[in-house]
Each structure stands twice: as structure tokens, then as C-alpha cells.
Amino acid sequence: MLIPRPETETIIEIIKQKSESGNFLDIGTGSGCIAISLLKEKIFSTGVAIDISRESLFIANQNKLKFQIENLEFKQLDFLNENINQTFNCIVSNPPYIPPEEMKSLKDGVIKFEPEIALTDFSDGLSFYRKIAIDGKKLLNPNGFIILETGGENQIIQVKQIFLDQNYIVIIHKDQNGENRFLEITPK
Ligand SMILES: C[S@@+](CC[C@H](N)C(=O)[O-])C[C@H]1O[C@@H](n2cnc3c(N)ncnc32)[C@H](O)[C@@H]1O
């Protein structure tokens, strides 16, 4: 997503409250807004931000230069089909979570200005969560954690169950509108 939404700011607040340090992985960085904020606010010292889209990474890199961010590495990578050989203190992601059949009901402002690949996984909206649940334990350092944005009330219970099934501890956080939207996930 190239136009950051206010809900995503809450991700930064949730991570800030955990007062972490070390490094992070941002999956589907888009404009780079999450990764850049985490480094700008000195919540982590280094980060890796991945995206499948070369166009997104071009914009993210422009933002990185604009905000004079150091220690942020961008990688063009298809998270659903490629592996990452590094470990992190935190994995953060606002992945494409809209099922294709719900794309038609999106507001014009979203559908007109965002590429489809930023919005939908072309499956059931849960592909990225399933992959993060499977890969998470090998990508996290000891005491590492995962913070995820979801589609909100209708989807979050399904996403929570995916992580419970893989033996994680899951806490739900609300967005600015009081809607259940974010998950804080730690391996048991
Ligand atoms: C909802 S946007 C989130 C953008 C940004 N992180 C934010 O919160 O505003 C999802 C991003 O995931 C990227 N993406 C889609 N499929 C991907 C894949 N298979 N691997 C990596 N990134 C992918 C899209 O290009 C898009 O930038």
C-alpha cells in the first residue's frame, strides 16, 4: 500500500510500548512507512524491509532518503514463495489481507490508487498470516515477537486461530476506532 492509513500508526505505538531494541523485519513494506517510523523513533537500531513490488521499493527508498534513515535494508522478495535467512527481534506486517471477492466493495479512493497486489492475496486473505505463522519461529530471535495488522473484526478471529494452532501466545489490540485489528504474537 503506497498511501499509509491512520490505523497503521497504532502498530508503531504497540511496538513502542514494548520498548524493544535490536532489529526488525517489515513484510510488505509498501511506502516504507512502518520501517522508517521504527528507525526514526529509534525503537530499533536496524531493519530489513521486503516487498515483491519494485515500484513500492523505489518509493520506500525515496522516503528513506527524505527522512535520512540509516540502517534500513530493502530487499525485493516474494515472501509467499521465497525464504529469508536471517533472524529478528520483531516481525511486523500489514499484509495484503482482502479476499478477492471483497475487492469490489472497496471505496473508490482505495481501489483507484492502490495496486491490487497491495490489497489482496488473490486467495482467502489469510495466505500471509499462514506463512508468517509457519516461518515465524525460525525468523525470530529468542524473546522475539510479531505484530500484525488484520482486516478487523471479521478477520482477526481467523488470524488469531492460525497462530494458536501453531502454538503461539496471541494478544489482540484495538485500532483508533476501537475495532479489534492488531495481533501481538509470541512463540510459547
Ligand atoms: C497493505 S500493503 C502495506 C504497505 C505498508 N506496510 C503499510 O502499512 O502502509 C501490502 C504490501 O505488501 C506487498 N506485497 C504483496 N505481495 C507480496 C509478496 N508476495 N511478498 C512481499 N510483499 C508483497 C505489496 O506490494 C504492498 O506493498
Task: Tell me about this structure.
With 188 residues, the chain is an alpha/beta fold. It has one domain: Vaccinia Virus protein VP39 (Rossmann fold, 3-Layer(aba) Sandwich), CATH 3.40.50. Helix content is 37%, strand content 25%. It contains seven helices and seven strands; from the N terminus they run H-E-H-E-H-E-E-H-H-H-E-H-E-E. The protein has a seven-stranded mixed β-sheet with strand order 3-2-1-4-5-7-6, with helices on both faces. Strand 1 (23-27), helix 2 (33-40) and strand 2 form a beta-alpha-beta unit. Residues 1, 4, 8, 28-31, 33-34, 50-53, 56, 78-80, 94-96, 117-118 line the site of S-adenosylmethionine.
What is shown here, in short?
This protein has 188 residues and is of the alpha/beta class.
Feature tags:
binds S-adenosylmethionine, Rossmann fold, alpha/beta
